[in-house]
Amino acid sequence: MELIPALVLLFGCALISVPGHASDLPSGIEKCAITDEQCLVNGVNYVLRNYAQSGIKQLGLIPLDPLHIKKFKIARNPHSPVNIDLSFHEVDLLGLQQAVAKRVSGFKSDLGHPIELVMSVPEIVVKGPYSVDGRVLILPITGKGNAEIKLMKTKVRALIKFRRVSKGDHQTFAEVVDIKVDIDPAHVTYHLENLFNGQKDLSENMHVLINENWQDIFTELKPGIGEAFALIAKAVLDRIFGKLPLEQLFLA
């Protein structure tokens, strides 16, 4: 249910990876004018295809496929029919190398407008340890073990607000002040090992419930998932934009 968080990192990689000094970056990455949206889209897709697995050290871009996430959590919402504490730790997110950027817009030299990133991802898989406790629809759920969650044909839309920060002579950095992420998968499947301490009948019934009602469950969890993604993405973006000034990232 929470696998989606990694997608946001994806968007982080996108913005980060496009430009830089040709002499400092791996060959094939084009340095763009900050307002050249098609160049930015092309650069994002080039980096995803060629560097999602290795990362780019010069840009502070970590490997994204698999993307290792130490932990993330969705807390209970007592007003929701999906009222659970759901947490993951030391999980891997796979599939970002196949993501495709559709739009990167809003970049201006003054960073005065939100940046919009729209991407599609054929399949995202989150694998690793989870724990869950609470109620799904009208039934209790509890479990702790390994999870495999798949999001199919997922559209990701992120809105990122930056502010300019001047440091030293002729150096301007971008600082993230707000991120909002919307995730829209065409389908989600959940497999959670060791539900109800391994009681087979209860586990099978719960898997039928959550997979047949995946859309209702995802809708209820969506706000928490978006917040988790935003926190992860901010950490990634701050690392990159805090390292390299805009003057180095973009053509004047």
3D architecture notes:
By secondary structure, the protein is α+β, with helices and mostly antiparallel strands. It is 29% helix and 38% strand. Strands 1, 2, 3, 4, 5, 6 and 7 form a seven-stranded antiparallel β-sheet that branches.
Short note summarizing the structure:
The protein is of the alpha+beta class and 252 residues long. The chain is built from 5 helices and 7 strands; from the N terminus they run ααβββββββααα.
Strand content: 35-45%
Basic shape:
elongated
Low-confidence stretches: 1-23
| Nearest-integer average pLDDT | 83
Order of helices and strands: HHEEEEEEEHHH
For the biggest sheet, the summary is:
7 strands, antiparallel
Please give the count of helices: 5
Distance, first to last CA:
43 Å
**Class computed from helices, strands and strand pairing:** alpha+beta
Q: Please tell me how large the radius of gyration is.
A: 19 Å
What's the total count of β strands?
7
Helix content: 25-40%
List the helices and strands and how they pair.
Blueprint: H1 5-17, H2 37-51, E1 67-74, E2 82-94, E3 100-105, E4 115-136, E5 139-166, E6 172-184, E7 187-192, H3 200-212, H4 214-241, H5 246-249
Antiparallel strand pairs: 1-2, 2-4, 3-4, 4-5, 5-6, 5-7
Helix pairs in contact: 1-2, 1-4
Any descriptors?
seven-stranded antiparallel sheet; 5 helices; elongated; alpha+beta; 252 residues; single chain
